[in-house]
Amino acid sequence: MKINVALLLALSPLGIFAADDPPHPFVGVIERLDPAFDKLVAPGAAMEKLAEGFRWSEGPTWYDGGVIFSDVLANTVYRWKPGATVGKVNGADVFLRPSGLWKATPGFREPGSNGLTTDSQGRLLLAQHGERQIARFEKGVFTTIADRFEGKRFNSPNDLAVHQSGAIYFTDPPYGLEKIVDSPLRELPYAGVYRVATDGKVTLLTKELTFPNGIGFSPDEKKLYVAVSDSKATRVAAFDVKADGTLGAERTFFDAQPRRKPGVPGLCDGLKVDREGNVWATGPGGVMVISPAGKLLGVINTNEPTGNCCWGDDGSTLYITANYFLVRVKTLTKGAGW
Question: Which domains does the chain show, CATH number per domain?
Fold first, then answer.
Protein backbone atom coordinates (compact mmCIF):
# COMPACT_ATOMS: atom_id res chain seq x y z
CA MET A 1 0.00 0.00 0.00
CA LYS A 2 1.21 3.52 -0.86
CA ILE A 3 -0.05 6.84 0.43
CA ASN A 4 0.99 10.40 -0.41
CA VAL A 5 1.94 12.65 2.52
CA ALA A 6 0.68 15.81 0.81
CA LEU A 7 -2.76 14.21 0.59
CA LEU A 8 -2.58 13.24 4.25
CA LEU A 9 -1.87 16.81 5.27
CA ALA A 10 -4.84 18.01 3.27
CA LEU A 11 -7.23 15.45 4.74
CA SER A 12 -6.02 14.90 8.30
CA PRO A 13 -7.42 16.96 11.19
CA LEU A 14 -4.80 19.01 13.00
CA GLY A 15 -5.97 17.53 16.30
CA ILE A 16 -3.74 14.48 15.84
CA PHE A 17 -0.62 16.68 15.98
CA ALA A 18 0.64 17.81 19.37
CA ALA A 19 2.32 21.13 20.09
CA ASP A 20 5.88 21.33 21.36
CA ASP A 21 6.45 21.57 25.09
CA PRO A 22 8.15 24.64 26.60
CA PRO A 23 11.90 24.50 27.35
CA HIS A 24 13.19 22.36 30.22
CA PRO A 25 16.59 22.55 31.93
CA PHE A 26 19.22 20.06 30.77
CA VAL A 27 22.13 18.84 32.90
CA GLY A 28 24.26 15.93 31.69
CA VAL A 29 27.47 14.35 32.97
CA ILE A 30 29.78 11.64 31.64
CA GLU A 31 30.61 8.81 34.04
CA ARG A 32 33.89 6.95 33.52
CA LEU A 33 33.79 3.50 35.09
CA ASP A 34 36.70 1.78 33.33
CA PRO A 35 39.99 3.05 31.81
CA ALA A 36 38.95 1.57 28.45
CA PHE A 37 36.23 4.22 28.24
CA ASP A 38 38.88 6.92 27.70
CA LYS A 39 39.67 5.31 24.34
CA LEU A 40 36.05 5.78 23.28
CA VAL A 41 35.20 9.19 24.74
CA ALA A 42 38.05 11.63 25.32
CA PRO A 43 38.61 12.98 28.84
CA GLY A 44 37.05 16.42 28.91
CA ALA A 45 34.36 15.56 26.36
CA ALA A 46 30.92 16.92 27.19
CA MET A 47 27.36 16.70 25.94
CA GLU A 48 26.03 19.55 23.82
CA LYS A 49 22.31 20.35 23.74
CA LEU A 50 21.21 20.93 20.14
CA ALA A 51 17.43 21.17 20.28
CA GLU A 52 14.63 20.98 22.84
CA GLY A 53 10.92 21.29 23.43
CA PHE A 54 9.85 17.84 22.28
CA ARG A 55 7.34 15.60 24.04
CA TRP A 56 9.27 12.31 23.66
CA SER A 57 12.21 12.31 21.24
CA GLU A 58 13.14 8.95 19.77
CA GLY A 59 14.60 6.90 16.94
CA PRO A 60 17.36 9.17 15.51
CA THR A 61 19.21 8.38 12.31
CA TRP A 62 21.70 10.25 10.13
CA TYR A 63 20.01 11.26 6.88
CA ASP A 64 20.85 13.76 4.13
CA GLY A 65 23.56 15.59 6.03
CA GLY A 66 21.72 15.89 9.33
CA VAL A 67 20.02 13.90 12.04
CA ILE A 68 16.29 13.20 11.88
CA PHE A 69 14.34 11.90 14.86
CA SER A 70 10.80 11.10 15.93
CA ASP A 71 8.64 12.88 18.44
CA VAL A 72 6.37 9.90 18.98
CA LEU A 73 3.70 11.78 20.90
CA ALA A 74 3.59 14.68 18.42
CA ASN A 75 3.32 12.40 15.35
CA THR A 76 6.26 14.24 13.82
CA VAL A 77 9.77 13.61 12.53
CA TYR A 78 12.10 16.54 13.14
CA ARG A 79 15.39 17.37 11.44
CA TRP A 80 18.50 19.02 12.82
CA LYS A 81 21.22 20.07 10.40
CA PRO A 82 24.51 21.71 11.29
CA GLY A 83 24.38 25.39 10.39
CA ALA A 84 20.75 25.37 9.24
CA THR A 85 18.53 27.89 10.99
CA VAL A 86 15.66 28.69 8.61
CA GLY A 87 12.32 27.39 9.86
CA LYS A 88 13.68 25.86 13.03
CA VAL A 89 11.52 25.54 16.13
CA ASN A 90 13.53 25.09 19.33
CA GLY A 91 16.58 24.09 17.28
CA ALA A 92 15.00 21.71 14.75
CA ASP A 93 12.53 21.91 11.89
CA VAL A 94 9.65 19.65 10.88
CA PHE A 95 10.80 17.03 8.40
CA LEU A 96 7.72 14.82 8.24
CA ARG A 97 4.22 15.21 9.65
CA PRO A 98 2.29 12.97 10.12
CA SER A 99 4.98 10.42 10.83
CA GLY A 100 3.00 7.47 12.14
CA LEU A 101 -0.78 7.87 12.29
CA TRP A 102 -2.43 9.07 9.11
CA LYS A 103 -5.84 10.03 10.48
CA ALA A 104 -7.38 10.57 13.89
CA THR A 105 -8.05 7.09 15.31
CA PRO A 106 -8.96 6.23 18.90
CA GLY A 107 -6.90 3.76 20.91
CA PHE A 108 -3.37 5.11 20.42
CA ARG A 109 -1.25 6.65 23.18
CA GLU A 110 1.82 7.17 20.96
CA PRO A 111 0.64 7.87 17.39
CA GLY A 112 3.90 8.80 15.67
CA SER A 113 6.86 6.95 14.22
CA ASN A 114 9.50 5.60 16.59
CA GLY A 115 12.66 3.99 15.20
CA LEU A 116 14.12 5.33 11.95
CA THR A 117 16.89 4.01 9.73
CA THR A 118 17.89 3.81 6.07
CA ASP A 119 18.25 0.90 3.67
CA SER A 120 21.21 0.16 1.39
CA GLN A 121 19.81 2.61 -1.18
CA GLY A 122 19.59 5.42 1.36
CA ARG A 123 15.79 5.34 1.57
CA LEU A 124 14.16 6.20 4.87
CA LEU A 125 12.53 3.36 6.82
CA LEU A 126 10.16 3.98 9.75
CA ALA A 127 8.69 1.90 12.54
CA GLN A 128 5.22 3.45 12.73
CA HIS A 129 3.30 3.07 15.97
CA GLY A 130 0.07 4.59 14.70
CA GLU A 131 -0.15 2.65 11.44
CA ARG A 132 1.25 -0.47 13.16
CA GLN A 133 3.71 -1.15 10.38
CA ILE A 134 7.19 -0.89 8.93
CA ALA A 135 7.12 1.64 6.11
CA ARG A 136 9.43 3.20 3.55
CA PHE A 137 9.27 6.94 2.80
CA GLU A 138 10.45 8.03 -0.62
CA LYS A 139 9.59 11.04 -2.81
CA GLY A 140 6.77 12.12 -0.52
CA VAL A 141 5.12 8.70 -0.42
CA PHE A 142 4.79 6.08 2.34
CA THR A 143 4.96 2.46 1.18
CA THR A 144 4.00 -0.38 3.52
CA ILE A 145 6.73 -3.00 3.90
CA ALA A 146 5.05 -5.14 6.56
CA ASP A 147 1.96 -4.62 8.72
CA ARG A 148 0.80 -8.15 9.58
CA PHE A 149 2.01 -11.55 10.69
CA GLU A 150 -0.15 -14.51 9.69
CA GLY A 151 -2.98 -12.11 8.87
CA LYS A 152 -2.93 -10.30 12.24
CA ARG A 153 -1.94 -6.67 12.75
CA PHE A 154 1.28 -5.92 14.59
CA ASN A 155 1.08 -4.22 18.00
CA SER A 156 3.11 -1.06 17.31
CA PRO A 157 6.51 -1.63 15.65
CA ASN A 158 9.14 0.15 17.69
CA ASP A 159 12.65 -0.09 16.27
CA LEU A 160 14.39 -1.65 13.29
CA ALA A 161 17.78 -2.61 11.88
CA VAL A 162 18.77 -3.57 8.33
CA HIS A 163 20.97 -6.63 7.70
CA GLN A 164 23.47 -6.54 4.83
CA SER A 165 21.23 -9.05 3.05
CA GLY A 166 18.56 -6.35 2.90
CA ALA A 167 16.33 -8.09 5.46
CA ILE A 168 14.76 -5.82 8.08
CA TYR A 169 14.72 -6.93 11.72
CA PHE A 170 12.28 -5.16 14.02
CA THR A 171 10.63 -5.24 17.44
CA ASP A 172 6.92 -5.03 18.15
CA PRO A 173 5.95 -4.14 21.74
CA PRO A 174 2.49 -2.63 22.38
CA TYR A 175 3.72 0.76 23.64
CA GLY A 176 1.87 2.69 20.96
CA LEU A 177 -1.52 1.45 22.15
CA GLU A 178 -3.64 2.81 24.96
CA LYS A 179 -3.72 0.33 27.86
CA ILE A 180 -0.58 -1.23 26.32
CA VAL A 181 -0.79 -5.01 26.96
CA ASP A 182 -4.51 -4.70 27.75
CA SER A 183 -5.40 -2.80 24.59
CA PRO A 184 -8.50 -4.14 22.83
CA LEU A 185 -6.75 -3.35 19.53
CA ARG A 186 -4.16 -6.08 20.05
CA GLU A 187 -4.41 -8.94 17.59
CA LEU A 188 -1.18 -10.70 18.60
CA PRO A 189 -0.97 -11.85 22.24
CA TYR A 190 2.81 -11.40 22.45
CA ALA A 191 5.51 -8.82 21.67
CA GLY A 192 7.59 -10.29 18.90
CA VAL A 193 10.91 -9.77 17.17
CA TYR A 194 10.52 -10.22 13.41
CA ARG A 195 12.47 -10.43 10.17
CA VAL A 196 11.15 -9.13 6.85
CA ALA A 197 12.99 -10.71 3.93
CA THR A 198 13.60 -8.83 0.70
CA ASP A 199 10.72 -10.77 -0.87
CA GLY A 200 8.36 -9.47 1.84
CA LYS A 201 8.09 -12.71 3.83
CA VAL A 202 7.70 -12.00 7.57
CA THR A 203 9.23 -14.45 10.05
CA LEU A 204 8.65 -14.43 13.80
CA LEU A 205 12.09 -14.80 15.39
CA THR A 206 11.07 -14.85 19.06
CA LYS A 207 7.99 -14.10 21.14
CA GLU A 208 9.64 -14.72 24.50
CA LEU A 209 10.73 -11.16 25.31
CA THR A 210 8.21 -9.16 27.33
CA PHE A 211 8.95 -5.71 25.89
CA PRO A 212 11.51 -5.94 23.06
CA ASN A 213 12.64 -2.47 22.06
CA GLY A 214 15.94 -1.27 20.52
CA ILE A 215 17.70 -3.56 18.07
CA GLY A 216 21.07 -3.73 16.33
CA PHE A 217 23.75 -6.02 14.92
CA SER A 218 27.36 -6.63 15.90
CA PRO A 219 29.82 -5.39 13.24
CA ASP A 220 30.11 -8.88 11.70
CA GLU A 221 26.31 -9.34 11.94
CA LYS A 222 26.76 -12.66 13.71
CA LYS A 223 25.00 -11.33 16.81
CA LEU A 224 21.75 -9.45 17.21
CA TYR A 225 21.22 -7.29 20.29
CA VAL A 226 17.73 -6.48 21.54
CA ALA A 227 17.00 -4.10 24.41
CA VAL A 228 14.24 -5.21 26.77
CA SER A 229 12.36 -2.35 28.45
CA ASP A 230 10.65 -4.48 31.07
CA SER A 231 10.66 -2.55 34.37
CA LYS A 232 11.03 -5.85 36.23
CA ALA A 233 13.92 -7.18 34.15
CA THR A 234 15.40 -4.47 31.93
CA ARG A 235 18.42 -5.73 30.02
CA VAL A 236 20.15 -6.10 26.67
CA ALA A 237 19.63 -9.56 25.22
CA ALA A 238 21.89 -11.17 22.61
CA PHE A 239 21.17 -13.79 19.98
CA ASP A 240 23.39 -15.61 17.51
CA VAL A 241 22.23 -15.01 13.93
CA LYS A 242 21.96 -18.26 12.00
CA ALA A 243 22.83 -18.69 8.32
CA ASP A 244 19.14 -18.58 7.36
CA GLY A 245 18.63 -15.30 9.22
CA THR A 246 16.79 -16.79 12.19
CA LEU A 247 18.07 -16.55 15.76
CA GLY A 248 19.60 -18.87 18.31
CA ALA A 249 18.65 -18.92 21.97
CA GLU A 250 18.46 -15.72 23.98
CA ARG A 251 21.20 -14.89 26.47
CA THR A 252 21.58 -11.85 28.69
CA PHE A 253 24.35 -9.62 27.35
CA PHE A 254 23.95 -6.94 30.01
CA ASP A 255 21.63 -6.88 33.01
CA ALA A 256 20.66 -3.25 33.68
CA GLN A 257 18.16 -3.99 36.44
CA PRO A 258 20.73 -3.30 39.23
CA ARG A 259 21.16 0.24 37.84
CA ARG A 260 17.51 1.05 38.50
CA LYS A 261 17.55 3.28 41.55
CA PRO A 262 15.65 6.35 42.74
CA GLY A 263 16.83 9.37 40.78
CA VAL A 264 18.19 7.26 37.90
CA PRO A 265 15.55 7.51 35.16
CA GLY A 266 15.05 5.23 32.21
CA LEU A 267 14.89 1.63 31.03
CA CYS A 268 16.81 -0.17 28.30
CA ASP A 269 15.41 1.29 25.09
CA GLY A 270 17.39 2.00 21.91
CA LEU A 271 20.92 0.89 21.04
CA LYS A 272 23.67 1.21 18.47
CA VAL A 273 27.00 -0.61 18.01
CA ASP A 274 30.41 0.87 17.18
CA ARG A 275 33.02 -0.58 14.83
CA GLU A 276 34.86 -2.30 17.70
CA GLY A 277 31.66 -4.04 18.80
CA ASN A 278 30.92 -1.91 21.86
CA VAL A 279 27.20 -1.52 22.47
CA TRP A 280 25.90 2.00 23.16
CA ALA A 281 22.57 1.24 24.79
CA THR A 282 20.16 3.65 26.40
CA GLY A 283 19.06 2.61 29.88
CA PRO A 284 18.98 3.79 33.48
CA GLY A 285 20.79 7.15 33.52
CA GLY A 286 21.34 7.68 29.82
CA VAL A 287 23.56 5.86 27.30
CA MET A 288 25.44 2.90 28.74
CA VAL A 289 28.64 1.98 26.89
CA ILE A 290 29.19 -1.77 27.14
CA SER A 291 32.20 -3.73 25.87
CA PRO A 292 31.73 -6.73 23.54
CA ALA A 293 32.33 -8.89 26.62
CA GLY A 294 29.37 -7.27 28.41
CA LYS A 295 31.33 -4.99 30.78
CA LEU A 296 29.97 -1.52 31.55
CA LEU A 297 32.72 0.97 30.66
CA GLY A 298 30.96 4.27 31.17
CA VAL A 299 27.66 6.11 31.01
CA ILE A 300 26.74 9.22 29.07
CA ASN A 301 24.36 10.31 31.79
CA THR A 302 21.69 12.64 30.43
CA ASN A 303 19.75 12.57 33.71
CA GLU A 304 16.67 12.03 31.53
CA PRO A 305 14.74 9.01 30.31
CA THR A 306 16.68 8.41 27.10
CA GLY A 307 15.11 6.88 24.00
CA ASN A 308 17.86 6.14 21.51
CA CYS A 309 21.06 7.27 19.82
CA CYS A 310 22.75 7.19 16.43
CA TRP A 311 26.06 7.93 14.77
CA GLY A 312 26.44 10.95 12.52
CA ASP A 313 28.79 13.41 10.80
CA ASP A 314 31.81 11.27 9.85
CA GLY A 315 30.49 8.43 12.02
CA SER A 316 32.21 9.54 15.23
CA THR A 317 29.53 11.86 16.67
CA LEU A 318 26.87 10.27 18.84
CA TYR A 319 23.47 11.96 18.65
CA ILE A 320 21.13 11.17 21.54
CA THR A 321 17.38 11.63 21.91
CA ALA A 322 16.79 12.21 25.62
CA ASN A 323 13.19 12.95 26.55
CA TYR A 324 12.63 16.65 25.63
CA PHE A 325 16.08 17.02 24.04
CA LEU A 326 18.42 16.24 21.18
CA VAL A 327 22.03 16.24 22.36
CA ARG A 328 25.37 15.08 20.99
CA VAL A 329 28.82 14.06 22.16
CA LYS A 330 32.00 13.61 20.17
CA THR A 331 33.60 10.17 20.43
CA LEU A 332 36.92 8.57 19.51
CA THR A 333 35.32 5.66 17.69
CA LYS A 334 32.88 5.32 14.82
CA GLY A 335 29.61 3.53 14.34
CA ALA A 336 29.63 0.10 12.76
CA GLY A 337 29.46 0.46 9.00
CA TRP A 338 31.09 3.89 8.77
Answer: 27-330 (2.120.10.30)
